[in-house]
Amino acid sequence: MGNPDVPPGWSPPQAEMGQMTCGNCHRLLSYPQGAKHVRCACCQTANLVLEAHEVGNVKCDGCSVLLMYPYGAPSVKCSSCHFITKIGEHNRRPPASVQQGPPPLTRNPLH
Ligand SMILES: [Zn+2]
Ligand SMILES: [Zn+2]
Protein backbone atom coordinates (compact mmCIF):
# COMPACT_ATOMS: atom_id res chain seq x y z
CA MET A 1 0.00 0.00 0.00
CA GLY A 2 1.00 3.59 -0.04
CA ASN A 3 3.46 5.10 -2.39
CA PRO A 4 5.74 2.87 -4.40
CA ASP A 5 7.73 5.95 -5.34
CA VAL A 6 8.89 6.59 -1.81
CA PRO A 7 12.16 4.83 -1.06
CA PRO A 8 12.35 2.83 2.16
CA GLY A 9 13.71 4.78 5.08
CA TRP A 10 12.43 8.07 3.74
CA SER A 11 10.12 9.86 6.07
CA PRO A 12 8.13 12.91 5.20
CA PRO A 13 8.93 16.17 6.98
CA GLN A 14 6.87 16.75 10.07
CA ALA A 15 5.72 20.13 8.96
CA GLU A 16 6.33 22.51 6.15
CA MET A 17 9.21 24.60 7.36
CA GLY A 18 10.82 27.53 5.69
CA GLN A 19 14.29 28.86 6.20
CA MET A 20 15.74 32.31 6.12
CA THR A 21 18.77 34.09 7.46
CA CYS A 22 18.48 36.54 10.30
CA GLY A 23 18.81 40.07 9.00
CA ASN A 24 20.87 41.03 12.00
CA CYS A 25 23.27 38.18 12.78
CA HIS A 26 22.83 36.09 9.60
CA ARG A 27 22.05 32.94 11.49
CA LEU A 28 19.92 30.41 9.63
CA LEU A 29 16.42 30.38 11.06
CA SER A 30 13.63 27.87 10.54
CA TYR A 31 10.01 28.83 10.72
CA PRO A 32 6.66 27.16 10.10
CA GLN A 33 5.19 27.92 6.70
CA GLY A 34 2.75 30.77 6.86
CA ALA A 35 4.51 32.57 9.66
CA LYS A 36 4.72 36.30 9.15
CA HIS A 37 7.61 36.89 11.46
CA VAL A 38 10.34 34.72 12.85
CA ARG A 39 12.30 35.68 15.91
CA CYS A 40 15.99 34.93 15.96
CA ALA A 41 16.90 32.84 18.98
CA CYS A 42 20.35 34.34 18.92
CA CYS A 43 19.79 38.09 18.82
CA GLN A 44 16.01 38.26 19.36
CA THR A 45 15.50 40.19 16.14
CA ALA A 46 12.03 39.76 14.67
CA ASN A 47 12.55 39.09 10.98
CA LEU A 48 9.79 39.66 8.48
CA VAL A 49 9.19 36.53 6.46
CA LEU A 50 8.95 36.73 2.71
CA GLU A 51 8.07 33.72 0.65
CA ALA A 52 10.63 32.59 -1.87
CA HIS A 53 8.66 33.88 -4.82
CA GLU A 54 7.91 37.21 -3.24
CA VAL A 55 9.61 40.48 -3.85
CA GLY A 56 9.82 43.27 -1.35
CA ASN A 57 9.85 46.99 -1.87
CA VAL A 58 12.16 49.41 -0.16
CA LYS A 59 12.82 53.06 -0.61
CA CYS A 60 16.34 53.98 -1.63
CA ASP A 61 18.18 55.75 1.17
CA GLY A 62 20.07 57.70 -1.44
CA CYS A 63 17.48 59.07 -3.85
CA SER A 64 14.17 57.82 -2.40
CA VAL A 65 13.23 55.86 -5.50
CA LEU A 66 11.22 52.72 -4.80
CA LEU A 67 13.38 49.63 -5.23
CA MET A 68 12.42 46.00 -5.43
CA TYR A 69 14.54 43.29 -3.90
CA PRO A 70 14.36 39.53 -4.05
CA TYR A 71 13.42 37.39 -1.11
CA GLY A 72 16.18 37.09 1.44
CA ALA A 73 18.36 39.89 0.15
CA PRO A 74 20.14 41.69 3.01
CA SER A 75 20.55 44.82 0.95
CA VAL A 76 19.64 46.25 -2.42
CA LYS A 77 21.70 48.44 -4.70
CA CYS A 78 19.95 51.33 -6.36
CA SER A 79 20.22 51.24 -10.12
CA SER A 80 19.98 54.98 -10.47
CA CYS A 81 22.24 56.33 -7.72
CA HIS A 82 24.11 53.12 -6.82
CA PHE A 83 23.50 53.64 -3.13
CA ILE A 84 23.29 50.38 -1.21
CA THR A 85 20.22 50.35 1.02
CA LYS A 86 20.18 47.83 3.80
CA ILE A 87 16.99 45.88 4.18
CA GLY A 88 15.80 46.19 7.74
CA GLU A 89 12.60 45.83 9.67
CA HIS A 90 12.09 49.60 9.59
CA ASN A 91 12.03 49.90 5.81
CA ARG A 92 10.41 46.65 4.78
CA ARG A 93 7.08 46.69 3.09
CA PRO A 94 4.74 43.85 2.38
CA PRO A 95 5.14 42.56 -1.16
CA ALA A 96 2.76 43.95 -3.73
CA SER A 97 1.41 40.50 -4.46
CA VAL A 98 -0.35 40.51 -1.11
CA GLN A 99 -2.64 43.27 -2.28
CA GLN A 100 -3.65 41.48 -5.45
CA GLY A 101 -5.72 38.87 -3.70
CA PRO A 102 -5.05 35.18 -3.24
CA PRO A 103 -3.87 33.06 -6.15
CA PRO A 104 -6.44 30.71 -7.67
CA LEU A 105 -6.48 27.65 -5.49
CA THR A 106 -8.70 25.50 -7.63
CA ARG A 107 -7.79 24.24 -11.05
CA ASN A 108 -10.13 22.61 -13.45
CA PRO A 109 -9.57 18.90 -13.15
CA LEU A 110 -9.84 17.37 -16.64
CA HIS A 111 -12.39 19.27 -18.55
ZN1 LIG B 1 19.91 37.04 14.79
ZN1 LIG C 1 18.94 55.66 -5.29
UniProtKB/TrEMBL annotation:
One Gene Ontology cellular component annotation held by this UniProt entry: nucleus
Entry keywords, A to Z: Nucleus
Ranges where the Zinc finger LSD1-type domain occurs: 22-45, 60-84
Biased composition (Pro residues): 101-111
InterPro entries the record matches: LSD1-like, Znf_LSD1
Region of interest called Disordered, as start-end residue ranges on this chain: 92-111
Keyword hit for Transferase: no
Any single Pfam family the record assigns to this protein: zf-LSD1
Location (main, coarse): nucleus
Compartmental location: Nucleus
NCBIfam families the record matches: LSD1
Protein name in the entry: Zinc finger LSD1-type domain-containing protein
Organism: Aristolochia fimbriata
Taxonomy of the source species: Eukaryota, Viridiplantae, Streptophyta, Embryophyta, Tracheophyta
